[in-house]
Structures are given as structure tokens and as C-alpha cells.
Write a structure and sequence with these properties.
The complex is a heterodimer of chains A (about 260) and B (about 280). Chain A contains eight helices and two strands, in the order αβααβααααα. By secondary structure, chain A is mainly α. A six-stranded mixed β-sheet of chain B has the order 6-7-8-3-9-10, sandwiched between helices. A four-stranded antiparallel β-sheet of chain B has the order 2-1-4-5. Chain B has a four-stranded antiparallel β-sheet with strand order 12-13-11-14. The chains are: A mainly alpha (about 260), B alpha/beta (about 280). Chain B: This is ABC transporter ATP-binding protein.
Chain lengths: ~260, ~280
């Protein structure tokens, strides 16, 4: 193993592990806080409450880590004699390990909650995997938790890649394009949604697009491994484009 | 074993920052990289450290392409600004340097921090300009890489700390010779330290020679203006200044001939040489 890569990976894991530990703690405390709040408000008569998509936190974590880590890591690693290529590869690897750690931790916490609370609990915790592929009670087993952790890891890694791509894109854009994109994208989402939906509903090309999207959705929903493969391909594509943007970017101090 | 720049060009929009720059920093010397603001000094160092990509030409560090792991692991840039995360503490930055540079001398770094009264538990971004410079100097003097580059190292430092830095630099160089490149505007302060001077102006190398050779080939002759003008006629005068009735001209030459009565001759210092050279270029 390239020593600079190895050291960069170690440095990044040290940084990411602190964030991982904070997230584990938060994910462990949130359901407990929800239960305490429900008990405090309604006591024994509290209605059943549910925490859906518990593992989506892994995705959000990956996105944020990808967004904030890219430039900071390139700066500090360049200062310490690591090439941008080694720094980038270390980042890709460290983000994968961080996503795995968070996903496994979140699945374990979820499993513990389910085991402790039992089936008669007022609090129902489900993750993304259960929502789409294996609803309770089948999805409550250890195997389902493990499969859920794998899917969460891939979701986290892919969103980290998306985060890095956004960060790299903004790094390379001039001030003019930064402002233009920052304004145009939200405006397009707000004012473009209605015409887009109308177009999808009223034109033959739109209906064909809807049908293609539905077919793709069915493919993803058919098996978690289909979704994982697609997400891995998306993550790899985002990382590849990020590298193309990054390799000639100017490494400057933060403002 | 050397840092070699070959035919480097770099443009920013319409501005040509470096134009066909070829330069070598050899092993075991202290270099001065001098130039006015915007001359291209920092651009050159940023290209060397892979922070910026050149438009043309090649840069190698002991044969390895600049920006590669092999090249970067052999040098350390003490830049004008920090590349460390906002929330990193000085102590953690030393830990990081220790992780990446096998020859980093932790005890020496902590000793330097003590001498400069640099607090180890403070966040880097909360340090004043002067202490920010001290923090970077401490790292630069402790990493023990074959090449250490100082870009405006004494920015914001008071006279006492600047003096301490120069003394430590000389001691370090004497104990473990390496190549040091000092880019600074405070030429008079480093003049006695630098063995080899590179002067850059508007992206082009104007001079690249041993400091002694540059200054020994020039003389300042001063005296009453009329007398100086008469003596200087036909000589290679590259700068002149008048203060009251007293005129000083800088001339190139051996400086061995006898001067007419009323004129005085003295050696030109590096700073005076630099200023005179810039004035000569301005007039072109």
C-alpha cells in the first residue's frame, strides 16, 4: 500500500470516526427521547408511534460528510505532503468505511431497541430496507438487519459521492456561475415541477418517460441487490466526475 | 538531486503570471526568491507543491513530478496562509505532521513553540497573524524534509521573533543542511543568509546567481551631483537617486579604479541591488 495513501486514510478515519460516534449516540438517544416524550405527554395511554426510515440518517450523514470533507481534506493533506490523487482515493475509501460503520451501528441500535421493546411496544422502528423489501415481522430478523445495513452502507456511500460532486462543482465554478446555479436550481424545482408534471401526464413522450421510470422503480424494488448495484454505479460515477473536476482545481486556503 | 522548473508558463485570464521560467534549486543551499508583489513567486511555489497546475512546462523534485506523493513527501511549504481546518488545534496539527513526516522532530517542535510562546491548545484560526506565522515556522523547522520553502515566513512577526527565526534557521541549516527557499519582501533581513538569489519580475527570471556574484559586480558611487554625472558618463549605470545635492549611482563593474576626489564608493547590498534592478526595469 502506498504509504501516503495509508497515512491519509488513517488521518481521515480519525476525523470521521468522531462524527460516526456522535451519530451513533444521537441515533441511540432519539427513540428513547421519543418514548420518554410520548410517556410524559400521554402516559400509559400513549398511542403507537413509529419511526420510519430510521437508517436514512446514514444517507444524510454520507451527504454531509461528502460535502464538507472534500476541500478540507485536500487542503490539509496537501500541506502534509499527500498528492491530490492519494488524498482523493483515501477519501473515497474512508467514506466507504464511515458509511459501513454508521450503517452497522444504526442497524445494531435498531435491533437492540426491537429486542428490548418486544412486539407489544408503542414505538415501531423501521428502516429503509424494511419499508421497501421486508416488512415486519419477517424484516425483524438478524438476516434482514444485515441486509438492511448493506443497503444503508451503499446509500450512504452514494450520497457521500453526490456530496463530493456538489462540493467539487462549486469549487470549480466562477462566482457568476455559482450564483446562477444557486438561484436557478431552486427556481427550476419550484416553478418547473408543475409544467413537468403536466408534460408527463399529457404528452406521449411524457407518458413513455413515466413508464420507463416506473419500470426502473420496479427493478429497484424487486431486490435490494438491484438497488445496491445501481447505487454503487451511481456512486462510482459521481466519484469519477468529482475526480475530473478536482484534479486541476486550485488548492487555496479557506476564506 | 534538485528541484527543477523547465519552461513553466501560467496565465490567469489575461494575466501571464509565469513566462517560460526555467530554474533549479540545488541540494544544500539557501535560496532567496525575490520579487515585487505579483511577480510570480507564490505562483511558482504553489505549482511546485501541486496546489496549482501549470499551463506548460515541467517541474520535478529529485526526478519525481511535482504534485506526486514522491515529490510532495520531500518538501514542505511554509505558506503565507493556513491550509488547516478551522477547528484544528496547534497540538493536533503537530500530531498530523508527525503522522505524515517520518523525520518530524516532535520534541524540537514543542521546544520551538515554547521559545516563541506559541500556545499548543489554541485553535489555529484563532491565532493572530504573527502567531499564525510562528505556527507555520515551527512546522517548517521541525519537518526535516530535504526541501523547505518559506513564503513570506515572518508576516506579522515582531522584530524579536524575526531575529529568533533567522537564528533558528541558520542553526537548523548548520546542523542538518537542506535546501531552503525564502521568498520575502524583507530583503535586508535575509541578505546575509541567502547564498543564491533568484529575482523574478512579471513572471520572468531576471537574475539567477550566487548572491555574492550579484552584489560584487555592482558599486554605488555617491557625491555632488555634477561630479557624479561627469564620472558616470559612459559607464554602465543601472540606477540613480538624488537627495538634495547628493547623487548616488549604481554601476556595474569591477570597482577597482581610483575615483576622483569628492566621490565615495561602497558595495551595494542585496536590497539596494534589488531596488536598483527594479528601477532599471521600470525605465525600460
Amino acid at each position: 500500500m502506498n504509504t501516503r495513501f495509508g497515512r491519509a486514510f488513517r488521518y481521515e478515519m480519525q476525523n470521521y470516526f468522531r462524527a460516526v460516534a456522535v451519530l451513533w449516540l444521537a441515533m441511540a438517544l432519539i427513540p428513547a427521547a421519543m418514548m420518554a416524550l410520548a410517556y410524559f405527554l400521554a402516559g400509559e395511554t400513549a398511542a403507537e408511534s413509529s419511526f420510519n426510515g430510521y437508517s436514512m440518517a446514514v444517507g444524510m450523514f454520507g451527504l454531509v460528510l461528502g460535502m464538507v470533507g472534500l476541500r478540507e481534506n485536500q487542503r490539509v493533506l496537501n500541506q502534509n505532503g499527500v498528492s491530490r490523487r492519494s488524498a482523493f482515493l483515501a477519501d473515497v475509501a474512508a467514506l466507504a468505511v464511515a458509511a459501513l460503520l454508521v450503517a452497522v451501528g444504526v442497524s445494531v441500535i435498531m435491533g437492540i431497541y426491537r429486542a428490548v421493546l418486544g412486539s407489544g411496544s408503542h414505538l415501531l422502528i423501521t428502516d429503509l430496507y424494511q419499508l421497501i423489501y421486508e416488512p415486519a415481522p419477517a424484516g425483524n430478523g438478524v438476516g434482514a438487519l444485515a441486509r438492511g445495513a448493506v443497503l444503508s452502507t451503499v446509500v450512504g456511500w452514494m450520497l457521500a459521492a453526490l456530496g463530493q460532486f456538489c462540493s467539487a462543482l462549486y469549487w470549480r465554478l466562477s462566482k457568476f456561475w455559482t450564483i446562477l446555479i444557486s438561484v436557478a436550481v431552486p427556481l427550476a424545482l419550484i416553478f418547473g415541477s408543475a409544467p413537468l408534471l403536466t408534460w408527463l401526464d399529457t404528452t406521449s413522450a411524457g407518458r413513455a418517460a413515466v413508464e420507463a421510470l416506473a419500470a426502473f422503480g420496479r427493478f429497484l424494488a424487486a431486490s435490494p441487490w438491484n438497488a445496491a448495484a445501481v447505487l454503487l454505479a451511481m456512486g462510482a460515477a459521481f466519484f469519477a466526475v468529482t475526480w475530473l473536476l478536482l484534479r486541476r482545481a486550485m488548492i487555496r486556503p479557506a476564506k | 538531486m534538485a528541484i527543477e522548473f523547465q519552461h513553466i508558463t501560467k496565465t490567469f485570464g489575461d494575466t501571464r503570471a509565469l513566462e517560460d521560467v526555467s530554474l533549479t534549486f540545488e541540494e544544500g543551499k539557501i535560496y532567496g526568491l525575490l520579487g515585487n508583489n505579483g511577480a510570480g513567486k507564490s505562483t511558482l511555489l504553489n505549482i511546485l507543491t501541486g496546489r496549482m497546475c501549470q499551463d506548460g512546462g515541467t517541474v520535478t523534485v529529485d526526478g519525481a513530478p511535482a504534485g506526486s506523493d514522491a515529490a510532495l513527501s520531500r518538501l514542505f511549504l511554509v505558506g503565507e496562509k493556513n491550509l488547516y481546518p478551522d477547528d484544528m488545534k496547534v497540538k493536533r496539527a503537530l500530531d498530523t505532521a508527525e503522522l505524515f513526516y517520518p523525520d518530524f522532530d516532535r520534541a524540537y517542535a514543542e521546544n520551538l513553540a515554547k521559545q516563541f510562546e506559541l500556545p499548543l491548545n489554541k485553535k489555529i484560526n484563532s491565532l493572530s497573524t504573527g502567531y499564525g506565522s510562528i505556527f507555520r515556522i515551527v512546522l517548517g523547522l521541525s519537518v526535516n524534509t530535504p526541501y523547505v520553502l518559506f513564503d513570506e515566513p515572518v508576516l506579522g512577526l515582531d522584530a524579536q521573533h524575526r531575529d529568533l527565526f533567522y537564528k533558528l534557521l541558520v542553526r537548523k541549516y548548520a546542523e542538518s543542511p537542506c535546501t531552503m527557499v525564502i521568498s520575502t519582501h524583507l530583503i535586508a533581513e535575509v541578505a546575509d543568509l541567502i547564498e543564491h538569489t533568484v529575482i523574478i519580475r512579471k513572471g520572468r527570471i531576471l537574475q539567477d546567481a550566487p548572491t555574492e556574484a550579484l552584489t560584487a559586480a555592482c558599486w554605488a558611487v555617491s557625491g555632488p551631483a555634477g561630479l557624479v554625472d561627469g564620472w558616470a558618463a559612459g559607464r554602465d549605470v543601472f540606477a540613480s537617486s538624488v537627495l538634495g545635492g547628493l547623487k548616488t549611482v549604481c554601476v556595474r563593474g569591477e570597482g577597482t579604479e581610483d575615483l576622483p576626489a569628492g566621490l565615495e564608493r561602497r558595495r551595494v547590498g542585496l536590497q539596494e541591488y534589488f531596488i536598483s534592478l527594479m528601477e532599471e526595469e521600470d525605465q525600460r
